[in-house]
């Protein structure tokens, strides 16, 4: 079980929302300049202070495009993005963000220690070699501090990206598929680091295809499909919506179980009792985030 601090919503202040996306549109020219590709359409959501928000969707749903708009790497076609009230790419916003890209492109001739040293100098981050050794140990790169990145697997590069993102002790961590290339043990370590950073006070936007992990550590989730919002809410709201129950009864020695909605539960219990059946169990059906997303993806925007 995760030791995740529950998010109550009370931590948020009107003028101190880490991330607010409002009516975001991003369009690109079609192939050979013909037509228009609507990568993101009318997307609105927030990441509140002290909150871990899962950002989920299929390949091509618009997650990475949205993240690039948040970071100031792409300019929205319309709509707005604000970080603590500042524009994306501004110094005020960038100094408070840590970013883990999905496919980092590093100069392979440098080592993790050299990268941390260079990034600290460029970003004005205080620290010394002892601090960077400790940080690399924390992300699982102990013993690899001076090795060239050309020797690194994808998972090891992801670990280095995490170290660079954590170097400034950010107020907002933006992570684009951080568990890509990681084995189960490494994914567990990443989850623990994300949880500890949240307990330190950082907010997190976590884009991931591994929905079980989003379900495990996130307070809320934002769901995209084909560039549009299809659902969002707290994990309790998403997993507890449209409750269903397994109702087990015994009649004449024969046991049977039926699944009924919450609204029809009492009526079904009464009808079974009228037949002389004994009710032996009423259990809520626990949905997974994957089931919720698949239903939302095929349904209407909530």
Q: Which class of secondary structure composition applies to the elements? A: alpha/beta
- The order of strands across the largest sheet is 5-6-7-3-8-9
CATH topology tier name of the largest domain: Rossmann fold
H/E element sequence = EEEHEHEHHHEHEHEEHEEHEH
Quickly name the level 1 CATH class of the largest domain.
Alpha Beta
Total beta-strand segments: 12
CA-based gyration radius: 23 Å
Mean pLDDT: 88
Query: What's the number of domains?
Result: 2
Q: Which CATH architecture of the largest domain is right?
A: 3-Layer(aba) Sandwich
Low-pLDDT stretches are 5-12
N-to-C terminal Cα separation, in Å? 30 Å
Helix count equals 10
Large-scale geometry:
globular
| Biggest pleated-sheet summary | 6 strands, mixed
Assigned CATH superfamily of the largest domain: P-loop containing nucleotide triphosphate hydrolases
Helix content: 25-40%
Q: What proportion of the residues form beta strands (DSSP E)?
A: 25-35%
